[in-house]
Amino acid sequence: xxxxxxxxxxxxxxxxxxxxxxxxxxxxxxxxxxxxxxxxxxxxxxxxxxxxxxxxxxxxxxxxxxxxxxxxxxxxxxxxxxxxxxxxxxxxxxxxxxxxxxxxxxxxxxxxxxxxxxxxxxxxxxxxxxxxxxxxxxxxxxxxxxxxxxxxxxxxxxxxxxxxxxxxxxxxxxxxxxxxxxxxxxxxxxxxxxxxxxxxxxxxxxxxxxxxxxxxxxxxxxxxxxxx
Length: 228
What we know:
Blueprint: H1 4-16, H2 23-30, H3 50-64, H4 69-105, H5 109-113, H6 115-118, H7 122-129, H8 131-160
Helix pairs in contact: 3-4, 4-7, 4-8
């Protein structure tokens, strides 16, 4: 059973390990939960090094420092396109080597041992025999480059935009306190007077205002009903 001294020591240690207290520290710790979606092993093909992809992802995240899930997804997209660009460069180099090897295989024995024939414009012959593979590869390279530039522009716009205010919790609606008689009291601290239900008040009549009734007619009637 812990002693009183051990309990007090644990309380003091708990007070010291409350995490960052400054705004800068809290902002930095908030990004700890953001993890990259790059899986080095699932995106590697034969001839590629997973450690190289992990180093690439770490470099991009240290450079751009995504602040929310949307920016994190954009950074991961940049990593994907850069990794594909490096792969396409290796494919192009291997395609050249393969086509040159195919040229050597198509030579006869006499042509193969003749240096003048064997090295007569090998790259030209290799490209001529593989125009379709090279064209398809170049279209993939162009599309990947455009994707990189669009993603980079979207990330730069997202990081330059002003920070949005925090979203209030769902289902929480602040209510004004009730004074007890059905009148809602404002939530601010400004002094206000609580008005009773409105009654109709007639406007005051000026003292100088008088009302003159019309004068009666002084016409007298003669005998027989005719006016005099």
